[in-house]
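Before the break, one more example. Copy the sequence into your notebook; we will annotate it together after we see the structure.
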Amino acid sequence: MKERLQAFIGKQEGFENSRVESLYRMPGGASKETWSFDLVLTDEPAREVLPMVLRINRSSPLPISIDLEQEFLLMKEVYEEGIEVPKPYWYGEKELGNPFYIIGRIEGETIVRRLHRDDEYETARRVIPAQMGKILARIHRIRVTGNRFNFLPHRTQCGSSALGELSFYETMLHRYAPDSHPALELGIRWLKTHLPPSMGQSLVHGDYRLGNIIFGSEGVRSVLDWELSHVGDPMEDLGYISIQAWRFGNDSLPIGGVGRREEFYQAYEQGGGFPVDGKRTYFWEVFGNLKWAVITILQTIPFLDGSSESIELASLGRKTSEVELQLITLIEGG
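Here is what the structure looks like once it is written out:
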């Protein structure tokens, strides 16, 4: 791995004299392998060490994800817009076996339970909901007209982004689920009868939650994991961040277990986001639970079919029933 990685980087303009050091695989990463390394630029006197991250597609990528090249191109676009993302360097196709990209490494923490628990993140817990609201507003205000994001999915049906997304995940459920899920079918039926009116489209992160940020004691440092991004209804992100699975037991604080909806919505609107409507975000919270339930099913397929021995993927499949319970609870309350 190290030799092939170094050979690839050595072919990049301006990096002919460089050396890969301290390469190791990072924990986590259900959809991709993630590796950390330092790139030492050996030209004198401009010797420099660049912290880097390598992300490699697993052999069975998540079927709802955009491909790795699309994700890399998107990260370049949002990085140029000043959004808090790692600096994208290079995309590669076959040099390491599977598609991969290399981005700058941003130091910090990603484990949400530590944010909830550790004293050093007391300030971060207080400021992160508003920070994430403001960052999301800036993401949604990136211009999507013209051909700029033609490489991303635009799922509409009968002029409705909501119906387009719902139909997509219904198809994924029926195509991949190894057994029946009546609770999810009930959720699909409820969503079809509560479709919100169409509104302007925006860039949607698609997986916007605390588990996909890097944070420090001062709060958010970077937004990660753009593989579910698409062009659609911006309220999808606002509903998704609220689902129960991301609260880790702190249900009184629905924004990741650290914040209230009101402060998140206020920061989002004040940051230039779209007007927030409670009925619309409720629909997208219900949808977010359906979406996450389908993802848990998809994640466990490689373990069930023997193509992966990942215990993490197997454990994600055990969470489906928890999400189904929350989905039914929301439907009863709606």
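Strands lie at 18-25, 32-41, 48-57, 88-92, 100-104, 202-204, 213-216, 219-223, 230-232. Residues 2-104 form a domain with the Phosphorylase Kinase; domain 1 fold (CATH 3.30.200.20). Try to locate both features in your own notes.
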